[in-house]
């Protein structure tokens, strides 16, 4: 009987405990579920906080650099337009006034974002812009102002040249290199020239010739292009129709920063096109808008101080603006 | 000691309970993972991504369109006192029409992604004493999670504006009702500098 009674008692108790355990499992299940939710939420918060904390950890240098780049671009545009707009002799003053307006406007706009910004011109180097554009009847040849002299000096006593763009009609250059149009730079003891030949409608030959006391080296390259198209040669950037010509280094061996040189055109009647460049000699020729090529007062180089201040970062830099100078 | 085994008819119940518990756990987990990103706008990591993406998209859009000149062209696409093709008040209520220089970039960056945006143009007024703004695109009030990006654009006196580029800023800007006045004098070289601001948010 003991067995039976034990069995009965135990049996009853066992039944009770089984019911208890079911509840416990249920409760545990629920608790675990809630726990998991809590853990996931917690983890998410941690990641979110970390995300927030690491964001914007830099002092905003990119913003300052962006400002500098934007200002540089805009001032170059202003400089470019001022060359053709300013009245004679005033280009420097007018540029300064324009930059002052620009600085004031930009400072007002930046102030709305809590940035103190300032742009000031700290120095200018006057120069001369010499250019020939298209006439009403089409491209003019490269002769002098009177149109009679094919071999002539475009500019003399030049120290530096920038932004020299030459566009020629590729179908109207001399086929023979020896009599072809050439841009020549020379000073005592050194000369450098670029000759444009090959009157094929879809290609142009560019010959760079470098002469010193020891002799002359010639490098020639043929540049194919779209049929009949005008070809733009950037003499200071060293490109022909956008393609790099590594041997084309403006006035290599002639422009050394110390000695002055002359820029001359040879066989100017053998090419038709436009050109434009800025030299650093303000006294070269008086401003002259009577006929092509035009001569205008210009700015060879401008130094601009740019300041950009946020609560986190003060940025200041003096930028030298002389767009289109040759490398090196 | 010996282990007693008693007859037990609750095996099935136990199994069921176990299954229920397991189900509860799984449901809890699913709920938890879903709950963290209830909407892309609730504060969470995904919301951060959405905001960052909108901000970067707006910034890149401004940078690329400024470089390509489309942004300037959009600012100059202004005729007769309103942006060309805008609504009655001269404001676009969505992505601008196809003739607009910013139509393609805006469609690609925001229009196709269900991102709403406003574009405001701030410019100096009263001879530089005050800064005011004109709306280019107005798609409503931004949410708390909106991202902004801005860029400054210089407008020059020889820039041409109008539906067919028929006017020149320095010559016709004030007569033909261009929204911004010259920053100084007649604005012959530098007309003015404006700031274009995009506010973008997830709809």
Automatic annotation (TrEMBL), chain A:
Transmembrane segments: 24-47
Pfam families to which the protein is assigned, alphabetical: DUF7261
Keywords assigned by UniProt, alphabetized: Membrane, Transmembrane, Transmembrane helix
Record protein name field: Uncharacterized protein
Source organism of the structure: Halorubrum ezzemoulense
Biological classification of the source: Archaea, Methanobacteriati, Methanobacteriota, Stenosarchaea group, Halobacteria
UniProtKB/TrEMBL annotation, chain B:
InterPro entries: DUF7288
Top-rank taxon: Archaea
Protein name: Uncharacterized protein
């Amino acid at each position: 009987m003991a067995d039976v009674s034990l069995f009965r008692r135990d049996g009853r108790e066992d039944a009770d405990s089984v019911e208890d355990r079911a509840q416990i499992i249920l409760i545990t299940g629920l608790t675990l579920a809630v726990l998991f939710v809590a853990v996931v939420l917690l983890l998410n918060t941690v990641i979110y906080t970390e995300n927030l904390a690491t964001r914007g950890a830099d002092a905003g240098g990119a913003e300052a650099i962006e400002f500098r780049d934007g200002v540089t671009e805009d001032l170059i545009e202003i400089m470019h337009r001022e060359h053709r707009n300013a009245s004679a002799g005033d280009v420097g003053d007018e540029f300064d006034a324009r930059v002052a307006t620009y600085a004031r406007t930009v400072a007002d706009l930046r102030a709305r974002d809590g940035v103190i910004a300032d742009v000031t011109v700290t120095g200018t180097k006057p120069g001369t812009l010499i250019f020939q554009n298209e006439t009403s009847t089409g491209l003019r040849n490269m002769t002098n102002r009177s149109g009679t002299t094919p071999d002539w000096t475009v500019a003399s006593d030049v120290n530096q040249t920038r932004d020299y763009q030459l566009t020629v009609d590729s179908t109207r250059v001399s086929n023979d290199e020896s009599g072809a149009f050439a841009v020549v730079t020379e000073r005592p003891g050194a000369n450098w020239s670029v000759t444009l030949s090959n009157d094929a409608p879809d290609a142009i030959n560019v010959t760079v010739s470098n002469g010193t006391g020891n002799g002359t080296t010639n490098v020639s390259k043929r540049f194919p292009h779209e049929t009949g198209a005008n070809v733009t040669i950037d003499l200071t950037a060293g490109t022909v129709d956008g393609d790099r010509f590594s041997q084309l280094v403006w006035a290599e061996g002639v422009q050394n920063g110390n000695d002055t040189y002359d820029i001359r055109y040879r066989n100017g009647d053998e090419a038709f096109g436009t050109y434009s460049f800025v030299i650093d000699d303000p006294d070269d020729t008086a401003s002259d808008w009577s006929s092509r090529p035009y001569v205008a007062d210009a700015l060879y180089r401008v130094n601009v101080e740019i300041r950009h201040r946020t609560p986190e970062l003060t940025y200041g830099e003096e930028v030298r603006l002389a767009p289109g100078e040759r490398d090196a | 000691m010996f282990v007693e085994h008693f007859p037990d008819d609750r095996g099935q119940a136990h199994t069921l309970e176990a299954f229920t518990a397991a189900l509860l756990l799984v449901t809890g987990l699913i709920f938890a993972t879903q709950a963290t990103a209830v909407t892309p706008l609730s504060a969470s990591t995904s919301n951060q991504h959405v905001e960052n993406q909108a901000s970067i998209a707006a910034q890149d859009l401004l940078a690329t369109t400024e470089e390509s000149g489309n942004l300037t062209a959009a600012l100059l696409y202004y005729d007769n006192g309103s942006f060309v093709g805008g609504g009655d008040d001269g404001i676009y209520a969505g992505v601008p029409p196809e003739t607009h220089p910013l139509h393609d970039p805006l469609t690609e960056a925001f229009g196709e992604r269900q991102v709403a945006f406003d574009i405001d143009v701030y410019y100096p007024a009263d001879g530089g004493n005050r800064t005011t703004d004109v709306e280019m695109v107005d798609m409503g009030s931004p949410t708390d999670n909106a991202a902004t990006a801005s860029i400054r654009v210089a407008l020059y006196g020889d820039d041409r504006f109008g539906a067919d580029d028929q006017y020149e800023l320095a010559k016709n800007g004030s007569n033909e009702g261009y929204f911004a006045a010259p920053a100084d004098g007649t604005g012959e070289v530098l007309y003015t500098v404006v700031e274009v601001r995009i506010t973008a948010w997830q709809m």
